[in-house]
Amino acid sequence: TGGSDVEIRDGEVETRDGVEIEVAANIGTLDDIDLAVERGADGVGLFRTEFLFLDRESPPDEDEQYEAYLQALEAFDGGRIVVRTLDIGGDKPIPYLDLPDEENPFLGERGIRRSLGPDSDLFETQIRALLRAAGSADGANLSVMLPLVASLEELHEAREVIDDISVDLDAVGIEYEMPEFGIMIETPAAVFMADEFAPHVDFFSIGTNDLAQYVMAAERGNERVSDLGDYRQPAVLRAIAQTVEAADGDDCWVGMCGEMAGDPELTELLVGLGLDELSMSAVTVPHVKAAVTETDTAEAEALAARVRSASTKSEVTEILTESQ
Ligand code: PEP
Ligand code: MG
């Protein structure tokens, strides 16, 4: 990846038969924005806001966050910017936040669970900063995304916080705009409940790093179980397919922002499974854009059907190799 021989394509790309696929970048720090623009990303599909909170002694305040979100919104002329609310806990500790000492942090208080619990103040500050930034940037196209959602209550509670903050901003006459609202699909519960979630959100974004970990009960980053925790496992692929199908018929687009989305050898499969957007590390954006332009959706759907009927990871790998 990252070879200099690949063509940088600015602007949205389509498959050979004219289906538009959004290809966006994952960013953490503000420095990542420049690289994302340089590599021709259509926008940001995952802004990991934890990075704004790292390497410092206290959380960034509302104004500092507002400036950061504004900078991202202004860097992509009308391109969609998906900002994920704080996803702390699990493998993402922040020293000054005093996280609990848990035996299984990946199954503990992380992501939205903290935002609706001990970090609710931080969550409200972040939402205010986001709504204000959306109101200030010219042609802003902001989406707010919740991490690690597992129940409908979490979705509703978070939505209520956002609505309450908009009422507060109205009351004091501060300019803001309501963003798109969506959730990450990265727990098996979210996959099973996706048809219940879809009517309440504008989009899903599948986080294959955590989804593979939780579907396969194989810790991400643990090499001893990396073969099991692979997104080519049929169970993970079926979870992805089920998510896309659950959103069908609702006004809910489906993207993917886990590492799987950045593998150009899987682009055809992902288009065939019906993903609308793919978001990845900026370096691979041109490779995936190239792969989209070489894809025919009818062929991609046939490939997806074959992959979906595979019963083992080696069968999946074989089908994918044959299709290259
Ligand atoms: C994921 O889980 O796939 C994801 C994109 O989020 P993160 O890697 O930040 O947990
Ligand atoms: Mg995740």
Automatic annotation (TrEMBL):
Cofactor(s) listed in the protein's UniProt record: Mg(2+)
Subcellular location, principal: cytoplasm
Residues of the full protein shown: 242 to 565 of 565
Reaction it catalyzes: L-histidyl-[protein] + phosphoenolpyruvate = N(pros)-phospho-L-histidyl-[protein] + pyruvate
Residues at which Mg(2+) binds: E186, D210
Active site as annotated: C257
Gene Ontology, cellular component aspect: cytoplasm
Functional note: General (non sugar-specific) component of the phosphoenolpyruvate-dependent sugar phosphotransferase system (sugar PTS). This major carbohydrate active-transport system catalyzes the phosphorylation of incoming sugar substrates concomitantly with their translocation across the cell membrane. Enzyme I transfers the phosphoryl group from phosphoenolpyruvate (PEP) to the phosphoryl carrier protein (HPr).
Any one GO molecular-function label of the UniProt entry: kinase activity
Protein name stated in the entry: Phosphoenolpyruvate-protein phosphotransferase
Subcellular location: Cytoplasm
Family: Belongs to the PEP-utilizing enzyme family.
EC number assigned by the record: 2.7.3.9
Residues engaged in binding phosphoenolpyruvate: R48, R84, N209, D210, R220
Ranges where the PEP-utilising enzyme C-terminal domain occurs: 10-295
GO biological process assignments: phosphoenolpyruvate-dependent sugar phosphotransferase system
UniProtKB keywords: Coiled coil, Cytoplasm, Kinase, Magnesium, Metal-binding, Phosphotransferase system, Sugar transport, Transferase, Transport
